[in-house]
Design brief:
The chain is of the alpha+beta class. Helix 2 (about 30-50) packs across helix 5 (about 90-100) and helix 2 (about 30-50) runs antiparallel to helix 7 (about 115-125). The chain is built from eight helices and 16 strands. This is EGF-like domain-containing protein. GO terms for molecular function: calcium ion binding.
Length: about 300
Amino acid sequence: MHVLLLLPFFQLLHGLDVSNFVPKVSADISPCKSCKILVQSFEKGLEKTKNGHFGGGNTAWEEKNLLTYAKSEVRFVEIHDSLCTEISHDQDMCFYLSSEYEHHLKEWWTDGRQEDLFQWFCVDKLKVCCPPKHYGPDCLPCKGYPNVCNSHGTCKGDGTRKGNGSCKCKNGYEGTNCDHCANNYFVILKNNTFTCEECHKSCKDSCTESGPKGCDECKDGWVYMGEGEGCVDVDECLEQDVCTSQQFCINNDGSYSCLSCDPSCTDCYGDGNDMCFNCATGYIMKDKKCIDASEGYEVEEKTDGHQMEEL
């Protein structure tokens, strides 16, 4: 009965051309990355089997009179059969490539493995990758090669058959070869190389050195106090009527904030019922705090009653 039920399924499989099946992969994996994953898996297999030998018998005699295990087809088969088993992400694609291009891997193996596997397989044979610091269909050198993007950026398409080779500069750098400092950064020269460091937060757009003294111009909220101090924060809270009477002022670097007083205050100089200038309706000042008026009367009544008892 079970065989009869499964028969249509086997007939369906028999009619499919599984040789053309390409597994679905995540959107972020490129042909080059897929090839690298397979090569890395093969290299792990090489490492695992580097101390291996033919099983059974007199291994020394076998290696003297036969092919050595290190170069044998037996070792290749062991490596190939274990390919991709350690991979968790995009494993199906790795299995597919290992099967699809087994003949190429076998060719590299039997030719003596004279070349680097990645270069031979991914760059020269499949043409899905480029050597490091090269890009595009023709594997052209990246901008500024060999010192790509002045070491201050990355080459678009680096190591792949894609991209245009232009530089994507790191923060603080700009220019076609990342050879200039961006706005609000300044140059530091050392050992014939340059780096760009960010200006002080008080500087507006540009500076000549680090710290507030190096600003060419101060940002709003800062004031220039001469070469000795440079740009100094303006304390807006010292000015009158910065906040409303129901708020208190907090000074920040280059700015300020207005925060609401405690509900017990009509006006205040800080947060809490102990920082009121005057108490709101329904509150009274007690021990320099604005407390609920009813609580204040209860305290007074208890105090008066206690005093009467002592009398």
